[in-house]
Design goal:
By secondary structure, the protein is α+β, with helices and mostly antiparallel strands. Helices cover 66% and strands 15% of the residues. The chain has helices spanning 2-84, 87-110, 113-133, 196-200, and strands spanning 136-138, 151-158, 167-172, 175-177, 180-183, 185-191.
């Protein structure tokens, strides 16, 4: 009887061990299943991110292509502007050429210097008007005080009765284009005469 009691006890312990192992196995299986689910979830997330990345890359390629086309178009337009920017000005100058030719022709036909001079004078006025429309203005010089920013001195003339630095003569006219000096006036200016007695001292 004692042997049978011990046998039943062993069976119970064995049963408990089996149940414990079964529970552990089930827990492991659950963990594995959970990991599989997580792996699947991560895989889907990676696939989604990959799809988005490919979509962004495609968009980027389109944007890059659009930018290159835009840049080419702008560069072409700039070249066109550079090429024909002086067209209007040249057309105006051609009108001046026409008028000078007519003035010369009129002078030849009439043998009149006065007619020729009048024609040239009218043409010069028109040319000055064209330059004015382009923002070109003459620099004031004669009788003004010397300004190194717009005047260039080639001679100094001794004058006692005129303030030193006053421009006495304009050798060549100067011009400003839209607040920028494109050609300074070439001038002669007044200076005080040097006292010879002062030099000897």
């Amino acid at each position: 009887m004692k042997v049978e009691g011990e046998s039943e006890k062993e069976k119970k312990e064995e049963k408990n061990v089996n149940q414990t192992e079964s529970i552990k196995i089930q827990e492991k299986m659950d963990e594995i299943e959970d990991l599989k689910n997580k792996v699947e979830l991560y895989r889907k997330e990676v696939e989604e991110e990959k799809r988005k990345a490919e979509e962004y890359l495609t968009r980027l390629k389109y944007v890059q292509a659009d930018y290159l086309n835009f840049r080419k178009r702008i560069e072409k337009e700039i070249e066109e502007i550079k090429k024909y920017s002086n067209e209007r000005f040249i057309i105006s100058l051609l009108e001046i050429v026409d008028e000078l030719e007519m003035a010369l022709e009129a002078g030849k036909n009439t043998n009149s210097i006065k007619t020729l001079l009048e024609g040239v004078e009218m043409t010069l006025k028109k040319l000055n008007k064209i330059l004015e429309n382009e923002g070109v203005k003459k620099i004031e010089a004669l009788g003004k005080m010397f300004d190194p920013n717009v005047h260039y001195v080639i001679a100094r003339i001794e004058k006692e009765d005129i303030e030193e630095g006053t421009i006495l003569e304009e050798v060549r006219k100067g011009y400003i284009m839209k607040d920028r000096v494109i050609r300074p006036s070439i001038v002669k200016v007044a200076v005080k005469s040097i006292n010879k007695n002062d030099v000897k001292r």
